[in-house]
Amino acid sequence: MGLLEINKFPDKILKQKTLPVKNLDSLTQHLIDNMIETMHFARGLGLAANQVGATKRLCVIDLSVKEDKGPLIVLVNPVIVEKEGMIDAEEGCLSIPGYMTSIKRPEKVFIKGISREGKDIELEGTGLLARVLQHEIDHLDGLLFIDRMSPIRREFFKRRYRKLLKEAKEEK
Ligand code: NI
User: Fold this and answer.
1) How many whole angstroms from 92 Cα to the centroid of ligand 1?
2) Alpha-carbon gap, residue 88 to 15, rounded angstroms
């Protein structure tokens, strides 16, 4: 077990589409354990493999930071097979620390993937779970939530983020 470093925007690996996992070997199991530990340590709701430098299509989710009923979810090769509705909600990301904004996404999603044991998983998500599932699957496709904003709002974000980075540097 060990904590992994979380890549931050604008690291190029966050823009890369991950590759399907073909082998649930000990190396992959070890990566999953480390991702869970890293997500819990960072108090995130989810973490995708490319955020910690592995271009594998897998992510971990745990809503218990916000909702105490959330189980730990490990999703290998997840895909969204159905979406329903549309809703605006606040979103943040461990790779874009200190920034939150409202993003419009489908309200309900239906996911297929496999578990870390290789069993088929079918999952229906609404509310916060739907949001986190889409956010993590976006990561696996090389997309960040800022890519879901309008070009004008994204420009504002970039300016603000550069300022945040500068301030963080000055504090050190
Ligand atoms: Ni994220």
Assistant:
1) 7
2) 24
The H or E element containing residue 80 is strand 72-84
Catalytic residue among 90, 136, 155, 167: 136
Cα(139) to ligand 1 centroid in Å equals 7
Q: Band of the pLDDT at 1, cuts 50, 70, 90?
A: low
pTM: 0.94
Percentage of the chain lying above the pLDDT 70 cut: 98
Known catalytic residue at 155? no
Cβ neighbour number for residue 47 with a 10 Å cutoff: 28
Domains, the chain, ordered by start: 12-171 (3.90.45.10)
